[in-house]
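Late entry, written up from scratch paper. The run itself happened at the end of the previous shift, but nothing got recorded in the book at the time, so transcribing now.
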Amino acid sequence: MIKNILSILFVCLLANPFTMWAQIDLGNNQININFEAPKEYTIGSIEVTGENNLDKNSVLLLAGLEVGDKIKVPGDETKNLVRKFWEQGLFSDVRLLATKIEENFIFLELSLDELPKVSKFSFPGRTDNEVKKLKEKLQLYRGKTITKDMLRTAKISINKYYIAKGFYDVETNIEVSDDEDMRNGKILDFNINKNKRIKVASISFEGNEAFSDGKLRRKMKETKTKKFYRLFKASKFIEKNYEEDKKAIIDAYNAKGFRDAKITKESITRNDKGRIVINMDINEGKKYYFRNIKWIGNTKYTSEKLTQVLGIKAGDIYDEKLLNERLEFSFSSTDIKSLYMNDGYLFFNIQPVEVLVENDSIDLEMRIVEGQQAFIRNVIVKGNTKTRDAVVYRELRTKPGQLFRRSDIIRTQEELSRLRYFNPQKMGIQPIPDPATGMVDIEYDLQEMSADQIQLQGAWGGSNQFLGTLALSLNNFSLRKFFDKDAWKPTPSGDGQKLNLNATSNGSFYQSYGISFTEPWLGGKKPNSLTVGLNHTVFTQGENGKLITNRGFVSLGKRLRWPDDFFTLTHSLTLQRYSLNNWSYEIVDGFRDGVSHNFNYRIGLSRSSVFDPFFPTSGSTFSISGEFTPPYSLINGKDYKNLEPKERFKWLEYYKLRFSADWYTNIVGKLVLRTHFETGSLAPYNSETGLTPFERFHIGGDGLQAGGRFDGSEVIALRGYGNSEANPKATSQEASGAYVKYFIEARYPFMKSAQTTIYGQVFAEAGNGFADFSQFDSFVTKRSAGVGFRVIMPMLGILGVDFAYGFDPIYGKKTPSGWQTHFILGQRF
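Output as recorded:
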C-alpha cells in the first residue's frame, strides 16, 4: 500500500474558537473532523522522525504519550505536546502528523528538526589574550545550540568588549559554515575588524572660572587629548573612565568650596577625522566656608580636643571630602573615629549635620554616639594551611581580653604582610562585634603563598669575568621537621625559620659556598632572633696562587619596645681567616703569603616602618652599626711600625662605622619618591698599624659582586660608573677606606600583585670613595642620572636594567664616565 501522509496541523489549534471542517485524504476514504466536536482516538503507534540525534525513548518520555493511550483530536494533549517541544529551544521545526486513521485508531508521527550545534569556533587575526577574553565573555563550547538570538548576543558582546577599549567603530561578522565531521554541526568564524581606536581630539569647558581649562583637563586622569609628547597615557575614550573623570572634576570643585558645582550640559561629537570632541558646561555655584562647628554627645574627649584633631576652623574653605577624612577616613589614622576606636570604642558613630546655611557660610553639628568600650573575646585565624598557628599568633597585636584598638589590627596586618607568607591582597580581617555583651571577635582570613626564593644572579666582575650565583632561600623553614620524610613537600616548612644556601662561581678563578640559619623567635616567647652561618671562598691564580677565606658568625637580635617597637638591636661575633699562598696581587706592601685572622664584634641599631618589601609606598628605614676588633697593638707591646706585613696583619685591627637611611613618600597617585643616604668608614686604632688591607669598600657599578671582593671588601653600587671605578685609585687593588652615597629616585608601578611587581624609575645619584676618613668630603662626589625598570617575582627576586650617565671622570681619566648599562638579576630586596 502506498503510504499517504496527511498532516493534522495540531499546532494551529489555538484557543480561539472557530468552526471549520478539515478533510484528510486517506486514499479512497473521506474522513471529516469537526473541530467543534473533538473525537477520541486510541494511539496505534508513534514514530519519531526529522533531522535529529535524539533517543526515541527519551523523546516519547518527554512527550508523555504511549501506544494505547486515548486522546481527543483535536485537543489539549496534542496542543501541549507541540508547545512542550518548542519550549525546549532546541528545535527549528516541530510537527505532529497523522499518517493514518483506521476506525478509532490514529497513527502519529512526531517530526523534530534540531537546531544546529557549535562544532568549532575561531577568532581570526586576534591575539591570544583577546581570544581568551572573548571566550570568557561568550561562554562558547562545542555542542552549544546555535540560535539567531545566540548569534545576535555574541555579536553585541564582542562589540561591547572592544567599545569598552575605545574601538567605537568595531565591526563583527559571524560566518557560519557546515562541518562535515559532525552531523548538524556548524563552524563559527568571528571575523572582527576593530578599526582604529577613537582618539580624543579636544576637551573644552564653558562656565568655569575657578579652574582653567588646563587644570580641569589635568583632573581627568584617564580621558586625555591626543598629544605627541604623551607617551605613557593613551588618548582614548572609554565611557566608564570618562564618567569617573567627570566625577573627579566635581570633586575638585567640592574641595575648593563649590559644593553645588555640577555639569549642566555636555556634548560628545566626532570631528571630520572621526575623533572625539568633548564640551562641558559647568555651573560652579557659590563658594562656601566653614563657620561654627559644635560637638554634641561627647563625654570621653572635650570639644576643644576634638576640634584640635579635626583641624578645621571657622573661615576654612568648605571641603566635604576633607571633612569626611578628618572624621573617619584618614589614611594616617589621625581622624576622630580612629581616636575613639584606638581606645576601644568600636561602636562609636559620628554624624555631621548642617544646621544652618547662611549666605556663603555653613554651621555644623557633630552628633556623636560614643557607645561602650569593646574588649576582644576570641581571635580566630584560618587559611594558614602550611604555616603553624603559633607562628601566626605570635605576630598578632590583638589578644583575647585586651581592649579593642583599630591601630592594633592595622599593625597586625602590616606584620603579617612583612612575613611574606600570606598574600596581602587576599588578607581579610573582620571584627565581629557583639553589642549586647560589648565584646568583639576578630577573624583573620589568610591565603598562603610561597615565601621561598630561588636566586639566579649574574654580574660582570672587575676582570671582565662573569660571576654566577645560585641561591635558595627558604623563608618559612622548619628545622623541627627536618628528619620527617613526610614533611619534605618539597621542603619542611611552617615554623617561620630561614635557611639560606648559596653557591657562586665564575669557573676555576672563583668559588664561594655559604649556609645560614635564622630562628626569629628564639625560645618561642619573645621576638629575639638567632642567626648562625658559615662561608667558604676560594680564589685561584695560575697553578699555585690561592686565597682561601673561611668565615663563621653568630648573631643575636632583639626587638626593642623603646622608643617604639620598630627598633631592633643586633649583636654579632665573627671569626674569619684569610689564607694567602703565592698570591700575585700585592694585598699591601708585598703581602702575598701568610694568614690573617679577623675576630670582630658588631653592634647595630635599626628601625623599619616599611612593610611592603616589593614596592614600599610609605615609611622609612635606617640602620647604624659599629664593627670592632680587639685593639691588639695597644695591649701586646709590639712595635707595629717596623713589623713585616705578614706579622702586622696576622690579626686584623680596625673599627668600621656604617650608617644608611631610606625614606619612601607617596607624592601623587601611584608615584613614589625614594630618598637614600649612606656612608661608611674604616679606621685603625693605632696609626702605626695602618689601614687593614681587608674589609674596605669598593665603590661603583651594579653592586652585584656576590659576597664582596676577594679581599673581603664590601661592594657599594654607584650607577653610571663601572665596578670599583669610584675608588680613589680605581686602576689598582687598593679599595676605599671611606665612602658616601646618596640618591633620589621616583618610582611608578605598571603592575602590582602578589605574583609580580613591575615598576619604572628615574633617578639622580652621587657618591665617592676616599682613601681614608681624613680625606672624606661629602661634597666631592661622582654624579649620575638615568632611568630603569624592575620586574620583581618573589620566587626569583629582581630582574631589571638601569641606563645611567656618569657626569664625572674616573681615576686616571679626564672625560666623563658617560653612559653605562647595569643589568640586575636576582638581587635581594
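Residues 10 and 466 are 87 Å apart (CA to CA).
(Scratch paper discarded after transcription.)
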